[in-house]
Amino acid sequence: MEIRLLIVDDAAFIREVLIQIAKKAKISVVGEAADGEDALEKALSLKPDIILMDIVMPRKSGIQATKDILAQLPLTKIIACSTEGQESMVVKALEAGCCDYIVKPFDVNNVIKILQNTKIAQKPREGING
Fold first, then answer.
1. For the chain, which terminus, N or C, has the lower number of CB atoms within 10 Å?
2. Per-residue b/e over 63-90, b at no fewer than 16 CB within 10 Å?
3. Number of folded domains in the chain?
């Protein structure tokens, strides 16, 4: 099963770094978002398996976006991304429903390991039984 990934970060260069890491892990990046509002819209339309979610962003925080996304797409796995020293924010992200977190600057092998070890729920195919 191909893992479908949405990358959410307000910094374009961070999104690009994560895209390259996903390619190395043979994970398909289905979209990018630059803030929490955009993340919600993209998640609802793309229905990714995993979202890498920056915590601190403009318009809507990653914590609020996580709550909003999981309210509508409860099978989606969201992994919080934070900079070192934001431990209290990581706790809030986990309380909001994130299943794991990674710390910036990224350790490439750690990110790959977390992405590959995230258990993806089997989603029913659209069109079957209705």
1. C
2. bbbbbbbbeebeebbbbbbbeeebeebb
3. 1
Residues in the chain: 130
Mean of pLDDT over the chain: 90
pLDDT given at position 82: 87
Is there a cis peptide before residue 105, judged by omega within 30 degrees of 0?
Answer: yes
Which residue reads 């979209």 in tokens? Answer: 31
* pLDDT of 43 strictly over 90: yes
- φ/ψ of 115, rounded to 5, equals -60, -45
For 66, half-sphere exposure in the C-beta direction (CA atoms, 13 angstrom radius) is 29
Question: What is the percentage of the chain residues whose pLDDT exceeds 90?
Answer: 73
Region of residue 21 (phi > 0: left; psi between -120 and 50: alpha; otherwise: beta):
alpha
Domain CATH for 84? 3.40.50.2300
Per-residue DSSP letter, 2: -
Q: Is the pLDDT of residue 84 over 90?
A: no
